[in-house]
Amino acid sequence: MRIGILGSGLMGAKLGTLFARVGHDVVFSYARSERKLKRLAREAMGNAKAGTPGDAARDADALLLAVHWSRVDDVLSQAGDLSGKVIVTCSLPMSADDGRLVIAHTSSGAEALAKKVRKARIVSAFGTVPSEVLFDVFAARRKTNRPSLVYCGDDQSAKDVAAKLIRDVGFDPVDAGPLRIARYLEPFALLVGQLAYGTEGGPELAYRFLRFAR
Ligand SMILES: NC(=O)c1ccc[n+]([C@@H]2O[C@H](COP(=O)([O-])OP(=O)(O)OC[C@H]3O[C@@H](n4cnc5c(N)ncnc54)[C@H](OP(=O)(O)O)[C@@H]3O)[C@@H](O)[C@H]2O)c1
Questions:
Q1: Average pLDDT for 5-13
Q2: Which residues 6+ apart lie within 8 Å of 52 measured at CB?
Q3: Ligand 1 neighbours by CB, cut-off 6 Å
Q4: Residues pairing with 151 in the sheet
Q5: Host H or E run for residue 102
Q6: Of 103, 184, 197, 204, which sees the most CB atoms within 10 A?
């Protein structure tokens, strides 16, 4: 697949690198320095390049939105027409100081995003794990007992794309239902963040749901 990375920071850089490693064509975009984007493309050791958000979006089969909530409007305006595009978002609707969700309970960041780009197909995924664990999960992907990764969205074909990417990184995708379930997914991401950064043990943390046979 051709994957455009909108926001090449902690999450976008790592996920884009892993997408390139499994054979996807990746365009890294949206960082404060073009040198950084070029370095990421070089070091991804796959078919990756640096570009503008417009370049990242142009022929993309999927876009990863990985910017701070305060940058979403800016990156979307630079990306251009996103009609029909699959947008996988890990961006959480955090306040400027990252202390709290600014959208919650009756809506979610993912639903607000869907209202901003009405003709795009939004899937919420990857926001429930810390960036620090991504390479570890990838390295362990051939072992049994993959960690879970919840995702949600309203468009089945977009969700299929997201599930493939989730598998590519080494997780077991868990379909949580329609996009409005992001109202539960996003606060859960903050719980994972608290476990990762607010308790001892470090941020190399993932989760796994177990179902017991009835
Ligand atoms: N980090 C995590 O573990 C984690 C986990 C779950 C969800 N999330 C969510 O994922 C999203 C991305 O998080 P992150 O930690 O990856 O953020 P980040 O490291 O701050 O990355 C954001 C990217 O946006 C770029 N950027 C910021 N302001 C810009 C500007 N004015 N012009 C151009 N580029 C600009 C940054 O550029 P530079 O590269 O130059 O800084 C960076 O590449 C957030 O919504 C966050 O809530 C993060």
A1: 98
A2: 29, 78
A3: 7-12, 30-33, 36, 66-69, 71, 90-92, 94, 127, 130-131, 189
A4: 175
A5: none
A6: 103
| Å from CA of 63 to ligand 1 middle | 15
How high is the pLDDT of residue 45? 87
Radius of gyration over alpha carbons of the chain, in Å? 16
Q: What is the pLDDT of residue 21?
A: 97
Q: Which residues contact 30 (CB under 8 A, 6 or more apart)?
A: 5, 6, 7, 8, 12, 53, 56, 67, 71, 75, 78
Contact 38, 138 (CB under 8 A): no
> What separation in Å is there between the alpha carbon of 166 and the centre of ligand 1?
19
The three-point CA angle 124-61-8 to 5° equals 60
